[in-house]
User: Fold this.
Amino acid sequence: MLSLLQYAFAGPAYLWGRQSTAVPSYVLSYAPLVWLHSQDPYGPSDIASQLVHTRPEDNFTVVGNAPNPLTLNNLDSLNSIGGGSNIYLTSVDDITANPSWLKGVAPDSTGKTNGATSCAIVVNDHGSGKVDAFYLYFYAFNRGNIVLGQEVGDHVGDWEHNMIRFNNGVPQAVWYSQHSDGEAFTYGCLEKQGQRPVVYSAEGSHANYATPGDHDHTIPNLNLPVGPLEDHCDRGKLWDPTLSAYSYRYDAASNTFTPYDASYPTNWLYFTGKWGDQKYPKSDRRQKTILGIDATAKYSGGPTGPRDKQLNRANVCPTTEDPCFVSPFLRP
Assistant:
């Protein structure tokens, strides 16, 4: 109960305990709180640790002249050494054995992922009082939904995010990423703890929703309470991503990132490759499909990183959502 009260009534003294004190205060005061699913074995993960358990590959071939060790400070060197966007950070372990590093770190009673920096906060000041704050969440593994008894869309590496649009320090709307799409809501309609909007992370897929329960996403841009392709959300463990986060200013004109704290690594943000394995071909023993249909493959490819999340949006929604509907009421 005490920890929940701390979340709900986080004033300036509570904010001072966070990693970055130079971030605009309202970016932290209104930062989302995330309910992880009670049955999800794949929690938030340390961003740097992903490099310990993977190696860069291009078309399933190890990049021979990559830095060793690969770190968040030199990850961007792969852009020129290898194939740039064709590089996949590929697990050194057989992921069908479910190695322990895929499971991430469970938050403690305060909501912190101890020993794991599992979030990046990116702030884009558009000027004239309009500021977008991106809260980017990292998981080592994404477990897909069940279709006809088979998991579909499993992949190593998973980047999800919320974005809050502020006007003169006042939150206006919040974007919730969900698979290749998402939803936007007015700040006022959202469930909150204190003034912080609540997020429900779906079991396995980590898609972000504004309400608990079941969410069918079979039809793009239309979530329903029931259907053949469901995400499931509940109130498992409460995660406060800001307690273990790197934070940066983003300058859209130069497409550059500046850390709020000089100790934060920055070069990794420029990496243009993928944060997981390349999609396994049908000839790989690990790969399975339903009736040979490629869209039903058990394993898909790893995701791109924060730089690819449309950090300089005109609207609250990314351009994939056109028109951008910002719902004034909660829905699945």
Summary: Residues 123 and 133 are 5 Å apart (CA to CA). The chain has five helices and 21 strands. The first strand starts at residue 33 and ends at 36.
